[in-house]
Amino acid sequence: MAESIAGVQIPDSTLAREATELVRDAASPLLFDHSRRVFVFGALRGRGQGLEFDPELLYVGAMFHDLGLTEKFRRTDQRFEIDGADEARRFLHSHGITGEPADRVWTAIALHTTPEIPLHMAPEVALVTRGVELDVLGIGYDAVSDEQRAAVVAAHPRPDFKNEILAAFTEGLRDRPQTTFGNVKADVLAHFVPGFQRGDFVEVIKNSDWPE
């Protein structure tokens, strides 16, 4: 019988089950529970906005969105969002989902920490961001009911989540500080990594090879 959380049915296809197991094996309980909450909150936000979306694609986007913070999947030469996006596309291709649907999931993950832009894109792209924003930043907190929030947290608890997710960001980014240039993760390293020097867009322009 398919699982339901806060009235949202968790996809129970072979693809969804294998996605669940992949993330459960690679990620900490912190990131696994967060990713499941992102799916449910994203689905609830989509329902509230009257959006039509593919639950399986949204599920893969939500479940894979933080894989780049895990030891198994993180690299040091690109943004962590791209690590997860690349793995999601490989996973979907292995299940026969290619072309635009796979690219849609890639985009949803790659842009999930980029404010505003995803919200003007396909529903699955927008709703991964909606779910992340609600669970991490509290944006849209009152767009779901107290009862819905309680049901989600009962299924996937968030003990000391604020501090723990910041620690996970720090650990996943400290070996690639250059990838935080121009994005919100620079704030994390500025708070938690001694000696971190934030990239400066103005200085990059001024110090480029162009003579004027």
Question: Describe it for me?
Answer:
The chain is an all-alpha fold. The protein contains ten helices and two strands. α8 (161-173) packs across α9. The longest helix has 20 residues, at 29-48. The chain starts with a strand and ends in a 6-residue tail after the last helix.
How are the elements arranged and paired?
Elements: E1 4-5, E2 8-9, H1 14-26, H2 29-48, H3 55-64, H4 80-94, H5 99-110, H6 123-137, H7 146-155, H8 161-173, H9 185-192, H10 201-206
Antiparallel strand pairs: 1-2
Helix pairs in contact: 1-3, 2-3, 2-6, 3-5, 3-6, 4-5, 5-6, 8-9
**Overall form:** globular
Q: Determine the number of helices (DSSP H or I, runs of at least 4 residues).
A: 10
The description of the largest β-sheet is: 2 strands, antiparallel
What is the terminal separation in angstroms?
Answer: 66 Å
Unreliable stretches (pLDDT < 50, length at least 5) are none
pLDDT average, as an integer? 97
Helix content: 55-70%
Proportion of strand residues: under 5%
Strand numbers in spatial order across the main sheet: 1-2
Count the beta strands. Answer: 2
Order of helices and strands: EEHHHHHHHHHH
Q: What Rg do the Cα atoms give?
A: 17 Å
Structural class estimated from helices and strands:
mainly alpha
Offer a concise description of the structure.
This protein is an all-alpha fold and 212 residues long. The protein contains ten helices and two strands, in the order ββαααααααααα. Helix 3 (55-64) crosses helix 5 and helix 4 (80-94) runs antiparallel to helix 5.
